[in-house]
Amino acid sequence: MKKQQIRAWNIIIFGFIIAFVVGFFINFKVAKSKPESEDKSMEEILRMLRSIQKKTMSIPKPTQNCHFASSEGRKCHQEDRVTCDLNLKIPLFGHNGLEEVKVGAVAVFDGHFGSIASEMASHIFLYKFMLKLNNSIEQSYNLKELLKSSLVTTIIDIDAEFSEHYSKRHRYSGSTAVVALIYNNHVLVANVGNSKAFVCSQKNISREAGAASLAGLHAEELTRDHNVHRLDERARIEASEGVLKIDHDFVPLFMSHVPTTRAIGVVTWKRFGVIANPEMTDWRSLTSKDEFLVVASDGIFESLAPQKVCDFLNEVEDHSDPSLLAQQLIQKAYLEGSSDNLLVVLVPLGSAVSGSPGCVEVVEKPYL
């Protein structure tokens, strides 16, 4: 009995000792942490927020809320790719604290010498773009500039990643890139190569009784092709000792191929002046007269100029199904004589700005 009492007292004394040691270290840690500054606390909050976003940010799925059509045309394989989401939700700091803003993104990649580059770019573009925005959360007070800079670095990073991993096996594979961002009733476009983006807008053709009458759609191009016809592009190629050859139609060709002077990939041509740096527009305000944003690969424009595309959209009476319009447009381009792959995205600007056109993918065999 006496031994049991001694053992009980030993346990109690040992418990007091443990409690004292734990309490001492807790108080020491709290006392040490009190001098932390408010700036340090804000940095910790931002770091924690980034961590939460990275764990919870879902990988964007391609072709969300978009209307497009795609066809291999007269080629054996389809090398064009698209990724699109008009309802990207981006958590960013604004003047009122943490806010969720909505941004639309439409990207078309026209592959050449295979689809390796266009396939890779289309699969990782949205994820990398969102990651760039996520990593710059504290810089978001000027959101338009943040979106623009993130878009530029995303395209350049995709080119660098492709060049690093595929340079030995797919030296000539490459892709154009044209990307349109829609935010707060404005559109911004980045372009690499010879795909196109343009807006079809109502145009004024006459004035009667002091009021303008509207008829037809006018094509306002938001991109300029990168080829050796442009003096600035040609000068860069010649300065890098790129070889220009004139074909039988007196068309200058770069390295005996189609004169695309900017591209993702084509690693072998980089030393001759080919770059992947996108040419950017400014943010363009969208108005009530703007009806469609069109983003397409160059196969469409072998047979249809941008104005012809807008004319076609104007002639069609029923705009209730933009995916059907996209399908009809690539069929028209094919029948008019295009020999290339065909891909077009149509964004009805009224519904795109307010938010929710349906997501429909159309992969259509051309009519023979």
Automatic annotation (TrEMBL):
<feature type="domain" description="PPM-type phosphatase">
    <location>
        <begin position="65"/>
        <end position="349"/>
    </location>
</feature>
<dbReference type="InterPro" id="IPR001932">
    <property type="entry name" value="PPM-type_phosphatase-like_dom"/>
</dbReference>
<keyword id="KW-1133">Transmembrane helix</keyword>
<feature type="transmembrane region" description="Helical">
    <location>
        <begin position="7"/>
        <end position="28"/>
    </location>
</feature>
<protein>
    <recommendedName>
        <fullName>PPM-type phosphatase domain-containing protein</fullName>
    </recommendedName>
</protein>
<keyword id="KW-0812">Transmembrane</keyword>
<dbReference type="InterPro" id="IPR036457">
    <property type="entry name" value="PPM-type-like_dom_sf"/>
</dbReference>
<dbReference type="Pfam" id="PF00481">
    <property type="entry name" value="PP2C"/>
</dbReference>
<dbReference type="GO" id="GO:0004722">
    <property type="term" value="F:protein serine/threonine phosphatase activity"/>
</dbReference>
<dbReference type="InterPro" id="IPR015655">
    <property type="entry name" value="PP2C"/>
</dbReference>
<keyword id="KW-0472">Membrane</keyword>
